[in-house]
């Protein structure tokens, strides 16, 4: 395939920039100064032009909106409560109704200000029921789906070991969501992916989506028109033990990384994934699919802009 002369451009549709690690704090302990500006600049230098900052609960969603406000035109927020945080609805001082009201208010205000582009991260996670039990997860996933329908916002979704319930609840709401949604950090089976694609849902791929040979077969089969890419930093880096690592030959090199205790300006931190690594995710996807990196990037860019807008006038 002939290589494109267009510069590569990326949207990192899942990046947790509000995580304390990007402020230099690890496990509650300050290790170095905040280097968020550098993290974003490094990513921009490889062509990452848009960042979707994930909101995982009410507080994190507020922080994601704040980051979007501080980096206008580059960062955009999602607003929602992760399934592992579903218990927060019942422990909220004003109860579940009050928490839904606060989510609605934040989502409307930030959406109308051009800062929030998706409702999420919402969904189900039966791998980690020790965080929130199944009953509140189901109850508040459905409640947040109803809120997303009310607001007309596309979905930023999470599904782990819960495909039957997840697809049942989602399929009932998708007809009322003209912009659809995306299942991010997808690690499910081929059959799950095919069912989601049949529903009209996009698939988000990162390092965790490509750990095993089975994962790679799923990524290979994701239709380009349903593919979006992400890093999910500070997690989900591509590790040497992953099946995807063999496809990194010729991939863009990452900046030098050092231990957090020896942090120095301009360096990555070992074990802390960053959006600059999105170029390597695209490189692996291209190898797995047998197409050019340019084709992967342009398809993913177009899909992200079509679903989330991201301040781009047209695809």
UniProtKB/TrEMBL annotation:
This is Deoxyribonuclease Tat-D. A divalent metal cation 1 binds at residues 121, 232. Gene3D superfamilies: Metal-dependent hydrolases (3.20.20.140). GO terms for cellular component: cytosol. A divalent metal cation 2 binds at residues 158, 184. Belongs to the metallo-dependent hydrolases superfamily. TatD-type hydrolase family. InterPro entries: DNase_TatD-rel_CS, Metal_Hydrolase, TatD-like, TatD-type_Hydrolase. Keywords: Hydrolase, Metal-binding, Nuclease. One of its GO terms (molecular function) is metal ion binding. Signal peptide: none annotated.
């Amino acid at each position: 395939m002939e290589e494109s002369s267009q510069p590569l451009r990326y949207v990192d549709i899942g990046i947790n920039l509000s995580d304390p690690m990007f402020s230099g704090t690890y496990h509650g302990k300050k290790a170095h100064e905040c280097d968020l500006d550098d993290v974003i600049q490094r990513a921009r230098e490889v062509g990452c032009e848009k960042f979707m900052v994930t909101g995982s609960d009410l507080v994190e969603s507020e922080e994601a909106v704040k980051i979007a406000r501080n980096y206008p035109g580059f960062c955009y927020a999602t607003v929602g409560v992760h399934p592992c945080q579903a218990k927060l609805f019942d422990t909220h001082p004003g109860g579940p109704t009050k928490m839904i009201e606060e989510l609605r208010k934040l989502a409307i205000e930030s959406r109308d200000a051009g800062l929030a582009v998706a409702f999420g991260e919402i969904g189900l996670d039966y791998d980690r029921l020790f965080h929130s039990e199944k009953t509140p997860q189901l109850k508040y996933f459905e409640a947040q789906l109803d809120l997303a329908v009310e607001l007309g916002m596309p979905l930023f979704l999470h599904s782990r070991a819960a495909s039957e319930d997840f697809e049942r609840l989602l399929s009932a709401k998708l007809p009322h969501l003209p912009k659809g949604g995306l299942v991010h950090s997808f690690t499910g089976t081929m059959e799950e992916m095919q069912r989601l694609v049949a529903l009209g849902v996009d698939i988000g791929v990162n390092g965790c989506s490509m750990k095993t040979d089975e994962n790679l077969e799923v990524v290979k089969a994701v239709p380009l028109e349903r593919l979006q890419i992400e890093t999910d930093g500070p997690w989900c880096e591509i590790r040497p033990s992953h099946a995807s690592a063999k496809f990194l030959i010729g991939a863009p090199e990452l900046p030098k990384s050092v231990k957090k205790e020896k942090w120095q300006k301009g360096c990555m931190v070992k074990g802390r994934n960053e959006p600059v690594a999105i170029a390597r995710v695209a490189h692996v996807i291209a190898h797995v699919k047998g197409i050019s990196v340019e084709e992967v990037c342009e398809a993913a860019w177009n899909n992200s802009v079509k679903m989330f807008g991201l301040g781009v006038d047209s695809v």
